[in-house]
Structure formats: C-alpha cells, structure tokens
Description:
It comes from Nocardioides anomalus. This is Pyridoxamine 5'-phosphate oxidase. It is a single chain. This protein is mainly beta. It is 13% helix and 40% strand. It has one domain (14-272): Pnp Oxidase, Chain A (Roll), CATH 2.30.110.10. The strands form two sheets. It has a seven-stranded antiparallel β-sheet with strand order 2-1-5-6-7-4-3. A seven-stranded antiparallel β-sheet has the order 9-8-12-13-14-11-10. A hairpin with a 3-residue loop joins strand 8 and strand 9. The radius of gyration is 17 Å and the shape is globular. The termini are far apart.
Amino acid sequence: MACIREYGGDVFHEGELTVQRRAGVEADAARLEGMLAPADLRGGLAQFLAGRTYAALAARDGDDRLWVAPVSGPPGFLEPTGATTLAVHAAPAPGDALHGLPADQPVGLIVLEYVARRRARVNGRLVAAGPDGLLVEVAEAFGNCPRHIPPRPLALAAPADGSVLDDDLVAAVDTFVLGTSHPERGADASHRGGPPGFLRRESAHVLVWDDLPGNQMFTSLGNLAVDPAAALLLVHPGTGRRQQLSGTASVRWDVPGSATGRQVAFEVERVVG
C-alpha cells in the first residue's frame, strides 16, 4: 500500500492520491503537504480553539457504525492541554447517535465559527470518553479556508426523536458536516456548504451533492475511495433542528452540469433525530 500517512507523517494516503490524479491536481496538493506536519496545538491554533463554542465529531458507535455528532459549550470548552492533547469539556448528548461512544478509537473534529467564517480540523485518537467530556490525542491539526461557510450564527436544537429522513430539513440546509474514515489514517470531519437545495434527494434512500472546489487535498473523497462508510450531520439554518445520517457514499465523475464534474451520492442506512 503506497504512501500511507501514519499519525504524524506528511504524505497523502493511497485514496487521496487516486482522487488527486483523477482530478488532475497532484502538483497543487503536493504544495499543501506542509499542513500535514505533526500537530501542534499551541500558538494561534490554541487561541482559535479556546474561543469556539461548537465542533462536530466524526466517530463510531458501539456497533462500529460511523456518525457525526455536534458538541458545544461556552468558550474554553475546547482546551488544548499540550502540544498534541485536546480536552473537550462536552460530550454527545443523550438521544444523540454517539452518546456514550467508546474510547480508544480514531476521531475527527471540525471546529467551526460560522459568523467569522473560520474552521480548523483536528484528527487523532479518542483516549478517554465520559458523560462530561472527551480527551483526544491529536495527530493532525490545521486550518481550512473559509470557502462555502455561511456567515451567520449557528442555531442548535436539542436532539429529537426520529428515524425518518426529513425532506424539509434536507431542502433547507446550506451547510452540513461529512464524516469519513480510513482504516489506517482514521476518522475525519469536513464541512460542505452551498445555497439551499445543494443537498438534494435523488431517490428514497439516496442524497446527492455536487463536489465544489476546495483545497485539492481530497481528504474526504480520498477516504471514500478506500472505505465507503460515511455520515452526515444536518442542521436547519433557522430552527436548529438536526438529523444524523449514517450510511455509505461514493464519488461520481464526469457529471454533466457539475462545476467540477464530481458528485457525491450518499446512501442513507440509519437516521437519528
């Protein structure tokens, strides 16, 4: 298996390389390898994390199913306690798909500030988990560009009881979080955004969205090239109603009408909320 990036490494894994080649952006992606240097949560990144009130967590439940869950708290609830250690003073709530999630597993966090249109990704291993918080040993931590982040406050309602996909919610979202995973690299959470309707239902159990231009590393699509497990966190921009979806996803190429020619198809297997 070529070019697997182990924790703390600085190369792309085989799925990312496959997608980069297909998209013709290998040279552009190679210039970003410095972002994947060993994590360091000190300095400016520590200040950014300490001031945030919201993050989304990609991880697996006790049945090894991938989900994305919101975690939130007052400023300071994300506390770097060392260069590679992050204490999260919150945990997925009762009724959430990841409530009581098991520790000792790979996790991916995306930390978002919608009004300021800023975000950072923090990937590593969950070494402790309890009802009051999580402890993550961080392998990668880096900022992302503000592209496609809607500049508005985030509303987040309490978990709801439901297991049927909400079409009104799907039609309303202008942002969602995508969770993916790689068998050696671990879990990752990434942001997707666009005008309402960019995420749409294609059939009873399939959602699709066009893949818009990004940083060219193709972490999410690269993970899907190796492991189709995927998860979505949808939040209504007005009411804060949310649903968590778990299933599988695949990339379609040369799609007419898509800005990049790429489209992602997500097959819904489970719904919570």
